[in-house]
Specification:
Elements (H helix, E strand, L loop, with lengths): L2 H7 L8 H21 L1 H22 L1 H20 L7 H18 L1 H6 L5 H15 L12 H25 L3 H28 L3 H9 L1 H4 E2 L2 E2 L8 H21 L3 H21 L3 H17 L2 H20 L7 H7 L7 H17 L22 H5 L5 H35 L3 H23 L8 H12 L2 H31 L4
Antiparallel strand pairs: 1-2
């Protein structure tokens, strides 16, 4: 063996992956520093960067897969957080997906240009987001401007509404996708109802038992357990199920396709049972309000009269009789009609106290300001510690009389604009049913937000604000929807004809 051959044996080959190894080592060092400075949450955020990069690549390739991932994650995000599967704040995960979807739409210029989001709902939401942006300068408590605290509150109170509107408007853009949106919503709602059944009949998981220990005061009332399924709490679960039930009943009643009719009516029944299992008294009023809106929008005595009679009898039964008192959940719902209820009395006392202090803060105590920020000797300390018990009261406290007035006005504008489309512009009965269902569900959840602090909770914003945004798209897709519906109806009738012919064939 010569010297050259011997030398070759000891030459170290160049490392082709040296750059990647160095990058991963650098990322590892950054993760260690994040763990040292911010704890496990910071480390998890850094370690998620490679996964995020890979997912962004996949997201650009499969756009609708990304949307449906957001849709499902939005529904189960509180459930996953309860089990510790999300090491970062749950709202950040949801917001990240929405921003990725909007970035995809902006990069894909054609997709963004063709989106039909220039309507009154956009103007209303821009007004609300603009007002909440100006709230960053609200320093009525004399604590200085805290941009971080303001943004945390503003993105939950305002910006997530805009995200939901834009994402749904851009990605749910044709008849098939709108049907998929409502169908996916129904499937998730059925799962939530089944999980509540599981909690009631098979028991709670360890994580759910831990939650009940923390929330025993509101979830175990007079020995009756209020079930919460995959939601943040029983109030959120009950109001969501009530509003969802209204949506599915209306879609089922107005659909021409038999299998859709059966599926959505069964979904409505499941949500109704789930509503009662939550023990949320506001939920019954949510359902009644939703159906009242649809009775007006239906423009049909065949639909309006039976619905009015059924829910009139339901209200009469709960308010003036003792029918069903053997069931603890019905007794709980019946207490909603008790004017002397202790819970309602406490809320009235809280509202009276808020009125007294809010006079000196017409723009509220500021978005992102809470009891942990306001010192004990501050004039507005009382406002920061009074339990709001309602999303509308929460907005009132933090944005003042001016803010809640703006919010009510923009909400009415959005709802009335959508109702105008359903009542005057849509001709197709089943499409009008979808539009009416989404308007009715939006009304129902707003009433839930008036009675409980659930309006901005997951998964309500994407479902109800996103759902309402779809109503503004319906006139532009009505012709395509009618054509697709006629094809599905013709196929249904052909299958029915073939079955009847098969029955008439004599058996040998």
């Amino acid at each position: 063996m010569d010297d050259k051959t011997s030398a070759k044996r000891f030459v170290i080959p160049p490392n082709e992956n040296g750059g990647r190894v160095a990058l991963l080592f650098l990322l590892f060092l950054v993760a260690l520093y994040a763990f040292y400075s911010m704890g496990l949450t910071g480390m998890a955020m850094v370690c998620a960067i490679p996964v995020t990069v890979i997912y962004i690549f996949v997201a650009f390739r499969f756009k609708m897969f990304t949307f449906w991932t957001l849709f499902v994650l939005n529904y189960f995000i509180t459930f996953l957080s309860r089990y510790g599967y999300l090491p970062i704040p749950i709202s950040i995960v949801n917001e990240l997906f929405e921003i990725i979807l909007l970035a995809i739409a902006i990069i894909d210029a054609k997709m963004f240009i063709e989106a039909r989001f220039l309507n009154v709902m956009l103007i209303a939401l821009l007004t609300w987001c603009g007002f909440c942006t100006l709230e960053v300068f609200n320093d009525v408590c004399g604590l200085g401007i805290d941009i971080g605290a303001w943004y945390t509150g503003a993105r939950l109170m305002a910006f997530q509404l805009m995200y939901a509107f834009l994402v749904c408007t851009i990605y749910i853009s044709n008849p098939r996708k709108i049907r998929q949106f409502v169908f996916a919503w129904a499937c998730l709602s059925i799962f939530a109802a089944l999980w509540a059944w599981k909690q009631k009949n098979l028991g709670f998981t360890s994580a759910e038992k831990a939650f009940l220990v923390y929330a025993a005061r509101t979830h175990m009332v007079n020995g009756v357990v209020r079930y919460f399924s995959v939601f943040s709490d029983a109030a959120n679960f009950g109001c969501n199920m009530a509003a969802s039930a209204v949506c599915f009943y209306v879609v089922g009643l107005t659909s021409r396709i038999r299998k859709d009719k059966i599926f959505f009516l069964l979904a409505g029944v499941a949500c109704t049972w789930a509503m009662f299992s939550s023990g949320t008294r506001t939920a019954i009023f949510c359902m009644i309000a939703g159906f009242m809106v649809y009775i007006v929008l239906s423009k049909s005595f065949k639909i309006a009269v039976p619905l009015a009679v059924v829910f009139g009898l339901l209200v009469f039964m709960l308010a003036f009789t003792t029918i069903g008192n053997g069931n603890s959940m019905i007794r709980r719902m019946r207490s909603a009609f008790n004017k002397n209820d202790a819970s309602a009395g406490v809320r009235d006392i809280n509202k009276t106290a808020i009125k007294k202090y809010i006079v000196d803060a017409p723009f509220g105590i500021g978005i992102g300001i809470g009891y942990e920020n306001v010192p004990a000797n501050n004039k507005f300390r009382k406002l920061s510690t009074i339990p709001p018990d309602s999303e509308y009261v929460f907005i009132w406290v933090h944005t003042g009389t001016v803010g809640i007035t703006v919010f009510v006005i923009i909400t009415c504008i959005m709802l009335l604009g959508a109702c105008w489309i359903v009542f005057f512009q849509l001709k197709n009965n089943s499409l009008r049913g979808i539009g009416g269902a989404l308007c009715s569900a939006f009304t129902a959840i707003q009433l839930g937000g008036y009675g409980n602090q659930i309006l901005m909770q997951f998964p309500n914003v994407l479902l109800f604000y996103g759902g309402l945004s779809l109503v503004f798209l319906l006139p532009s897709i009505e012709q395509a929807y009618t054509e697709e519906e006629n094809k599905r109806y013709a196929l249904q009738e052909e299958r029915k004809r073939l079955r009847e012919e098969k029955k008439r064939v004599p058996k040998h």
